[in-house]
Amino acid sequence: MRRWTVRSSEDLGRAVAELRHSRGITQAELADQAGIGRTWLAKLEQGRRNNTVDHLLRLLRRMGATVTITWDDADAPT
Q1: In the chain, which end has fewer C-beta atoms inside a 10 angstrom radius, N or C?
Q2: How far apart are CA 56 and CA 78, in angstroms?
């Protein structure tokens, strides 16, 4: 099992990239499945600042929340 604690948009981007790679899908495929632009996804995965994500994470931290992403690598396609 893999676990990421997300404190910033950079953390989130790294987690998304790792999970996407573990599933063997491209940025274009994931962006299409999620209904977002591939360019936006690429910027997120590269750790570029994302004000919306950073603001949301700041709000959650101020309320005492911890954001964690967890996934089981055994579920990844082979």
Answers
A1: C
A2: 34
Residue 49: predicted pLDDT = 81
Give per-10-residue mean pLDDT for the chain (78 aa): 88 93 96 96 90 91 92 63
Structural domains of the chain in order of their starting residue, each with its CATH number: 2-73 (1.10.260.40)
CB atoms within 10 A of CB 68: 10
What's the CA angle centered on 35, arms 29 and 37, to 5 degrees?
75
Compute the distance between CA of residue 63 and CA of residue 52 in angstroms, rounded to an integer: 17
Q: What does pTM read for this prediction? A: 0.80
Q: How many CB atoms lie within 10 A of CB 53?
A: 17
